[in-house]
Amino acid sequence: MDILMILFTLLAGITLSAQSSVHGTFSRKAGTIETTFLTMLTGLVFLTIIIIFFGQGNVLRILSAPVWQLSAAFLGTAFLLLSVIAVPRIGVIATNVAVISGQLSISMIIDHFGWFDSLVIPLDWKRLVALLFMIIAIYFIYRGNKRSNMETNS
Amino acid sequence: MRYLAYILAVLAGTALSFESAIYGQLGETIGELETSFYNFFMGTLIMGLLWLFFGKGKLSYTMEAPKWSLLGGILGVVYLTAIVISVPFVGVGITMVTVIIGQLIMSMVIEHFGWLGIQQTKINKEKVFAVISMIIALILIN
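The joint structure predicted for all components is written out below.
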C-alpha cells in the first residue's frame, strides 16, 4: 500500500512539472496574466464540482478564520504568476530547481523559528550542507542552460 | 534579464513555502479540499482584477489554442488532491521528497524531448549534476 502511495505521489510531481510546461507554452501566445487567470478559473470550476461531491469540511467557516491565514491566497497567486513569468525565459528545469530551492530554504527557516505554530526543528549542519548543495544545483543549471543556448546558436 | 527570471523563480518557491505553512493551519479549521477551493477562488478574483487593469495579452487566444494547453488548472488540482490523499499514508516528509523527485525527473524528460510545446534542449552533464545535487540536499534535510 505504501509503495502504491509513493508512486501516486510521484505522479503529483509529474503533473506539477507538466503544469509549468503547459503554462510556458500557453503564456507565449496569451500573455502571463491571462494564463494565470485561466488556470485559477479552470481550477476553481473543477474544485467546485469536487467539493459538492466529496467536501467534508465547511467552506463557510472561511468567514470566521483569522485574516492572516486567509492572506495566504495572495502568496498562492504570486507563486503561480511568478512561475508563469519564469518558464518561457529560463526553461522548465531551471524554474523547477529554483522554485524548489526557494521553497526548501524558507521551510528550513520556518522550522528553525517555529513560525505559524509549526514544529521547531533547529538549523543544524546537515541542513546547512543541504542549502549549499541547492546553491550548487542552481549554478549547474545556469551553466548547463548557457551551454545548450550556445550550441543551438552556433 | 535572465538573472531576474532566476530570482523570480526562487521567490515563487518562498511564496509557496509560506503558503503551505499557513494553509496547513487553515486546512484544520475548514478542511483540505475547502482550503484549495478557497485558494483558487481568491486567485480567480485577484487575477481577474489584475487582468482588467494590467492585462496586455490576448485572453481570446483560449478559444484558438490547442485544447491540451488549457489543462493547467486541472493538473494543479490533480497535484493538490494527490498530496492531500498521500500525506496521511506516508507522512509529509516522504510526500515532499517524492513530489520533488517526480518534478525534477519529469522536467528533464519534458525539456529533453521538447514535449508540451517547450523548446527542446538536450540534457547535458551539468543538468544531471544539478539534479543529483538536489537529491543529496533532500536526503540531508530529512
